[in-house]
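Students often ask why inverse folding is considered easier than folding. One informal answer: many sequences map to the same fold, so there is more than one right answer. In these notes we will look at a single instance of the problem. The structure comes first.
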C-alpha cells in the first residue's frame, strides 16, 4: 500500500513541478523618469518620479530570443505562441489591458500601422528589448532603459495626452499561479506523509 501511495504522490508532484517549470515569465517596465511634452526641438529634461509599471510583457520561457512583427496588412509573425503585451491603465478598474495576445496578436484593427517587437532574455532577465508601435490612441518606442511613450492618459500618472520621453527598467515578476503550484505540492506531500504514517 505504501508503494502505491508513493507512486501516486510522485506522479502528482511531477505533474505540478512540470507545470511550474513551464509557467509563463512576466516582465514589467517600471517608469522612473519622465519629461514634459516632446516637440520637434526635443523632449526637455527627464524628471525623476516614483516608479510605476506601464508595460507588461509575457514570454513562454525565462531564456528566450524572439520577435513579434506586424505590417498592418499581412498576418503577424510571432516566434512565441504565448507572447503577450499589455498596457497599464491605472485609472481604469483593471491594472493592465492586453494589447497584443494570441490568437490574433493584435491584428484585428488596434494596430493599423503594425508593430515591431524583439527580445532577448536569459535566466529570467531581459538582456535586450525593443518595442515600437503606433496604435489607435497611443504609441510606444521603448528599449531596455529608455524611450518614448504617447497616449491619451494611458501610461501612468505622469504622461498625459502627449508624447513624453521616459527612463526606467524591466524586471521579472512572479506569476500569480506560481505560489499555488508550490503550495499544492506541499499539501500533497503532507497529506501523503499522514496517510503513510497511519498505515
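Output (designed amino acids):
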Amino acid at each position: 500500500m505504501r508503494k502505491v501511495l508513493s507512486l501516486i504522490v510522485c506522479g502528482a508532484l511531477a505533474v505540478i513541478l512540470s507545470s511550474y517549470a513551464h509557467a509563463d515569465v512576466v516582465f514589467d517596465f517600471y517608469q522612473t523618469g519622465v519629461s514634459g511634452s516632446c516637440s520637434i526641438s526635443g523632449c526637455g529634461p527627464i524628471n525623476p518620479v516614483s516608479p510605476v509599471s506601464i508595460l507588461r510583457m509575457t514570454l513562454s520561457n525565462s531564456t528566450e530570443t524572439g520577435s513579434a512583427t506586424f505590417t498592418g496588412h499581412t498576418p503577424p509573425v510571432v516566434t512565441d505562441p504565448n507572447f503577450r503585451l499589455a498596457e497599464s491603465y491605472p485609472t481604469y478598474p483593471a491594472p493592465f489591458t492586453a494589447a497584443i495576445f494570441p490568437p490574433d496578436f493584435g491584428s484585428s484593427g488596434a494596430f493599423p500601422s503594425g508593430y515591431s517587437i524583439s527580445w532577448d532574455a536569459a535566466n529570467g532577465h531581459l538582456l535586450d528589448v525593443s518595442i515600437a508601435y503606433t496604435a489607435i490612441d497611443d504609441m510606444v518606442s521603448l528599449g531596455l532603459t529608455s524611450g518614448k511613450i504617447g497616449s491619451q492618459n494611458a501610461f501612468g500618472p505622469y504622461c498625459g495626452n502627449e508624447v513624453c520621453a521616459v527612463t526606467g527598467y524591466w524586471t521579472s515578476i512572479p506569476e500569480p499561479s506560481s505560489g499555488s503550484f508550490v503550495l499544492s505540492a506541499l499539501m500533497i506531500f503532507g497529506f501523503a506523509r499522514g496517510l503513510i504514517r497511519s498505515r
